[in-house]
Amino acid sequence: MSKRRVFDIDFEAEPTPAISTVGETRRGPMASAISENAAALTERQSAEADIRAENDRLAHEYVALKKDGAIVARVALTDIHTTKLIRDRAASRDPELAELKASIQAVGLSNPIHVEDIGGGYELIQGFRRLSAYQELYQDTRDPMYAQIPATLQASGVQLDHLYRRMVDENLVRRDISFAEMAQLALSYSKRSDTTAARDAVDILFASAGRQKRSYIRHFAHLLQVLGRDLMHAEAIPRALGLKVVKAIESNPKLVTQIAAVLRAHPKRDASEELGILSASLAGPKRAAAPVSAKSSAKTTLKLNRPEGQARCTATDGRFEVQLDRNFGAIDQRKLEAAVRSFLDQLAD
């Protein structure tokens, strides 16, 4: 009987599978992918929610800033209207506009205009002269940079008295604004509001001014009401002369017709001649009806926009003053003498 030979065969031990604990379920590849996608979706939704919240916050902040007129943008000239507020500017050519245009070309516009968003366009609140300068610069040059003007945006729906107050506040910053210009603003507001008398309009618009100043403005408002159509240079009327004329008119109402007739008889008069007519009217009808020449008491005021600021020039009998934010005493004497000599040569007959 044959014997069987026994061989020992060694097999490589296989890894023992992990044994899960009670309650655990082994996750397959599909489940892991679904779980990862769900986590990514949740994270993306959270990020989108944060973005929407931030956009809402920025939108509310933008609306608040726009309501306060703190948003600056470039606005097309063709989108700006100037009909809502009646200006204190005369319809005649502004002699300072050329200087303002030169300043804008040299150093740009340092102070944006202010407009109200009316939907499909903008209504001008502040900056009539700046807008006029840009309009003329674009007409003259056709440069696209002047087709749009920097402007602060005011949200729509602001009450009329608030808009006029904004315009008044801007004008009050000008130290050279005349009582006639302030009175014209009050009359304009009174006309647009329909229910507000001129004297009440002065109190509303110039509430921050002193009582005496408001009284002066009311007197000039009366002067413009009775002679405004015939006055060509009301902004040049000094406070003292204007108050005297109003007092004389209140004492003798017929004086209005006499003064108006003399003014109409001199249609090409300058500011000095107009002041002469008003001064002569205080001396009686005979002098008021006489041909008027420049009076020694007349005063001419010029306002020139310069790159270094606004120069205010006052000319009276034997005196010419220039007020400008500059130290003229620091200028070399020879240069100053040459400038004065050139100035006087230009005035020589």
TrEMBL record:
<protein>
    <recommendedName>
        <fullName>ParB-like N-terminal domain-containing protein</fullName>
    </recommendedName>
</protein>
<dbReference type="InterPro" id="IPR036086">
    <property type="entry name" value="ParB/Sulfiredoxin_sf"/>
</dbReference>
<dbReference type="GO" id="GO:0007059">
    <property type="term" value="P:chromosome segregation"/>
</dbReference>
<dbReference type="InterPro" id="IPR003115">
    <property type="entry name" value="ParB_N"/>
</dbReference>
<dbReference type="GO" id="GO:0005694">
    <property type="term" value="C:chromosome"/>
</dbReference>
<dbReference type="InterPro" id="IPR050336">
    <property type="entry name" value="Chromosome_partition/occlusion"/>
</dbReference>
<dbReference type="Pfam" id="PF02195">
    <property type="entry name" value="ParB_N"/>
</dbReference>
<feature type="domain" description="ParB-like N-terminal">
    <location>
        <begin position="76"/>
        <end position="172"/>
    </location>
</feature>
